[in-house]
Hints:
By secondary structure, the protein is mostly helical. Helices cover 45% and strands 0% of the residues. α2 (34-42) crosses α5. The longest helix has 27 residues, at 5-31.
Amino acid sequence: xxxxxxxxxxxxxxxxxxxxxxxxxxxxxxxxxxxxxxxxxxxxxxxxxxxxxxxxxxxxxxxxxxxxxxxxxxxxxxxxxxxxxxxxxxxxxxxxxxxxxxxxxxxxxxxxxxxxxxxxxxxxxxxxxxxxxxxxxxxxxxxxxxxxxxxx
Length: 152
């Protein structure tokens, strides 16, 4: 009778390796939350990790940051998507965030100017359709995260 142990070992090794390769992207996908990343890098300093307004910079502000978890409740149960988008991309100003010459976010979410991209290694260079799509993706991811943290 022929010894199939090496073949069996190879088959089991291939199955385990392939299984890890299939499972890894799902695990990485779950770990990556672009909206949460944007929130933590652009909002949490003032609005807090939980979105309720108690971030580490909140005490140094003239006006207390708003509770971002109650945006929908303050708008008849609907997240004000268009206003949020306009506030974030700078078409509409929020007094607490300053004008676009010196806003809280700088030009992080603006498609009007691409010069700032030189300071961020993760952003495409130059004004282009890809650049505008990149900025829109960041804004939409942030709004999606704000939607997910709304109080029920």
